[in-house]
Specification:
The protein is mainly alpha-helical and 313 residues long. The protein has one domain. It is 72% helix and 0% strand. It has ten helices and no strands. The chain has helices spanning 15-45, 55-81, 100-121, 127-138, 147-150, 154-181, 193-230, 235-238, 240-265, 273-305. The two termini are 13 Å apart.
């Protein structure tokens, strides 16, 4: 991930710069995963679409991803130089400690997001598959830095990180996409009520299958990366990194329980109007809770990517 772990672990980093770094990292991952996930949801889950239903969400998340990845360049340099956050306004305080890999990551992510944005607004038939390919590539860029560069075997770590990012993006985008679909202002107007209910049921069914495999991929790749990074199981409880990892696992488990409940409760969608509204209300509540838990997971991820598991890493 972002090359934050290469900083000197013995450096006395400023608390303000460290906090800003963790916030920026969390926002970056949340925005990047959201952008990619919405593209996947729009192209692979929704059917019969000629354009992009979630264009504004994709573009907005992409813009936040670019702003935060650019902010991570000086913030990472300030951390390495052990300078306070106020020194960001003085270029001489951090420009000499900017890592080439961090700069390259910012360039690749910014360029990739720009391409995805252009494809989203392109009217050609090939725009949707091109946007999908571009989004999948750009969300994989952070896997080439940080943890993956400092843990062996390198190819296993990089591969697991890419799978983790791709699966997490599918999960985040799917939850947010479904949440947008079931909001009252988008549903059941006039004679389209029954048709829209059927569409939601079909989308839920399609995404449930995809989400199941995404969940398996997130869990397996996450466990593999945790084992490779920590090495010793005892470090799970004896290090702040290990404890943060346990918190993340607990949050993910909570999301899994909610997702499983959604899948079971919506397996037999009823066409009656009263039952439809009740099911939609339950779905909205659980999806909102799921989205909030996913945001918490990404926030913990921001802490993990900006912290060092051990001095050896």
């Amino acid at each position: 991930m972002i090359d934050l772990l290469l900083a000197d672990p013995f450096a006395s980093a400023s608390p303000s710069a460290e906090a800003a770094l963790q916030i920026a990292a969390g926002l970056f991952y949340l925005a990047l995963l959201t952008m990619t996930g919405l593209v996947v949801f729009d192209v692979a889950i929704l059917t019969g679409e000629s354009g992009f239903r979630f264009r504004r969400g994709i573009v907005g998340a992409g813009a936040i991803a670019v702003l935060t990845v650019l902010a991570l360049v000086p913030l990472t340099a300030l951390r390495i130089a052990a300078e306070p956050l106020s020194s960001a306004l003085t270029s001489m305080a951090w420009t000499s400690t900017v890592l080439p890999s961090t700069r390259l990551t910012a360039v690749l992510v910014s360029g990739g997001v720009l391409l995805v944005t252009l494809f989203v607004f392109w009217r050609a038939r090939s725009a949707r598959p091109l946007a999908l390919c571009g989004a999948l590539l750009v969300v994989s860029v952070p896997a080439l830095e940080g943890h993956t560069r400092s843990v062996q075997p390198l190819w296993v770590m990089v591969g697991a990180d890419i799978v983790h990012l791709l699966a997490a993006a599918v999960w985040c985008g799917g939850v947010l996409g479904l949440l947008c679909l079931v909001t009252p202002r988008r549903h059941f107007k006039g004679g389209q009520r029954g048709a829209r209910a059927i569409e939601v049921a079909d989308v839920v069914a399609r995404f449930s299958t995809v989400a199941l495999w995404a969940l398996v991929a997130v869990a397996c790749s996450g466990v593999l990366m945790g084992v490779l990074i920590l090495g010793d199981p005892l470090l799970v409880l004896s290090t702040s990194y290990g404890r943060s990892l346990l918190v993340k696992m607990g949050l993910v488990a909570s999301v899994v329980v909610l997702a499983a409940w959604n899948r079971r409760s919506l397996s037999g969608w009823v066409a009656g109007r009263k039952e439809e509204e009740q099911r939609l209300q339950r779905l909205r509540r659980t999806l909102l809770t799921e989205a909030l838990l996913l945001i918490a997971v990404v926030a913990v991820t921001g802490v993990l990517t900006s912290g060092s598991p051990s001095h050896s890493h």
